Amino acid sequence: MTTAVPATFPAMDVAGRLPRLRERMGEAGCEALLVTTLANVRYLTGFTGSAALLLVLADGLVLSTDGRYQFQSAEQLAGAGVEAHIAIGKVPAQREALAEAAGAVAKLGLEAANVSWARQRTFASDWFPSAELVPTEGLVEGLRRVKDEGEVARMAAAAGIADAALAAVKPTLAGGITEADLALALDTEMRRLGASGCSFETIVASGPNGAKPHARPSGRRIGQGELVVVDFGAIVDGYCSDMTRTVSVGQPRSATLARMVEVVAESQQAGVDAVRAGQSAAEVDRVCRDIIAAAGWADAFLHSTGHGVGLDIHEAPTVSATSDDTLVAGYVVTVEPGVYLPEHGGVRIEDTVVVTEDGCRPLTLAPKELVVA
User: Fold this and answer.
1) What CA–CA distance (Å, rounded) separates 168 from 26?
2) Is the pLDDT of residue 44 over 50?
3) From the CB of residue 152, how many other CB atoms can be counted at a distance below 10 Å?
4) SS3 content of the chain, % helix, strand, coil (to 5)
5) In the Cβ-directed half-sphere of 214, how many Cα atoms lie within 13 Å?
6) Per-residue pLDDT reduced to its tens digit, 261-293
7) Cβ distance 146 to 330 under 8 Å?
8) What is the pLDDT of residues 207-226, one digit of tens each?
9) Which residue from 4, 48, 152, 364 puts its CA 20 to 30 A from 312's CA?
10) Is 362 within 8 Å of 351 (Cβ atoms)?
11) Strand 203-206 versus strand 227-232 pairing type
């Protein structure tokens, strides 16, 4: 099978993330942290299972999971260079192991955004009755904002797969393929090239459907002269890519469609050019939005300009008018302005870029030419 995935990637210092997290725990007023978000568990330990809790103590680590992952958890933590006590068993056994390990903890942090009210009450009454439970926000996510060399390499591989998949399936557009079949072809090609999955449900939106930013692929056949918004991404070793291209089957059937593409392309390039360390995310959004507004379509730009990408397809920082984030070297963000006119269709162009000290480096490299013969 042809693959676009490198045989090896630069190593990630997974174990080195824990000391930085412990510093943040102290600042948040907790002696220990119970990590319940699976992406955060993976980030801190390398464990990729579908069920786990991670107790981060000042001087130790306890991972609890069930029997399905007895061997996988040991292998993955050892491979990541992470030392931890691994508690395997059903929920009562996991509860007992975690409660015992946290017995001397006076203030235990919970990930507030991931713990329901019901679960918090269970933790308070049954799991950790002697500890004060402290709500925390973004302790691990704050670390995840800056990607290391190994993370960027995985995202670059995912982006390369998406680039190649689009090149492979684009010729089918001229044959009257349906949105759903084009999406399936893209998904299949990304898998064939070595992706473990899709970053999100692939969007293929043609003609009037393009005016819906998150339209689902339908049985509608793509016609001549129509714009087609294609938004998709691949996953490689847990890390996502994200890219949107807008193409036309033959020449656009109206001057308005051609102008929409021209304006969004100018806006998107200006946004990419504005990305650099020290730049406010809100300023990147403003740069994109001002160009679209000058064309008379301010109200047709229906979403924010971008978002962070990593283990999750949407993560910090946000690139929007209301964002208070400042870009830092190592952030990976999207720049994706769009214009959506129900009577004509939609245009969105998106790249995923790595923020550098003096600009940015695009990871998504597929050509942006409009016309498909």
Assistant:
1) 51
2) yes
3) 19
4) 40, 25, 35
5) 4
6) 999 999 999 999 999 999 999 999 999 999 999
7) yes
8) 999 999 999 999 999 999 99
9) 4
10) yes
11) antiparallel
Tokens of 71: 């061997």
End-to-end CA, the chain: 29
Cβ atoms of 291 and 267 within 8 Å: the answer is yes
DSSP 3: -
Q: What is the pTM of this model?
A: 0.95
The DSSP letter of residue 199 is S
Average pLDDT over residues 8-32: 95
Q: How many CA atoms lie within 13 A of 102 on its CB side?
A: 33
CA distance 178 to 201: 16
How many angstroms separate the CA atoms of 278 and 356, rounded?
A: 10
Q: What domains are there in the chain, each with its CATH number?
A: 17-144 (3.40.350.10), 149-372 (3.90.230.10)
Nearest Cα to 350, choosing from 363, 334, 333?
334
Q: Encoding tokens for residue 258?
A: 């051609």
Instruction: Dump the DSSP string for 271-321.
Output: HHHH--TT-BHHHHHHHHHHHHHHTT-GGG--S-SEEE-SSSSSEEEEEST
The model's pLDDT over 162-172, given as tens digits with 9 standing for 90+, comes to 999 999 999 99
Report the distance separating Cα 192 and Cα 187, nearest Å. Answer: 9
Q: Decide if 319 contacts 305 (C-beta within 8 A).
A: yes
The tokens describing 19, both together, are 């000391």
Q: Give the mean pLDDT of the chain.
A: 96
Question: CB-side exposure of 74: number of CA atoms within 13 Å?
Answer: 6
Sign of CA dihedral 5, 181, 353, 327: negative
Quick one: tokens of 80? 């990541």
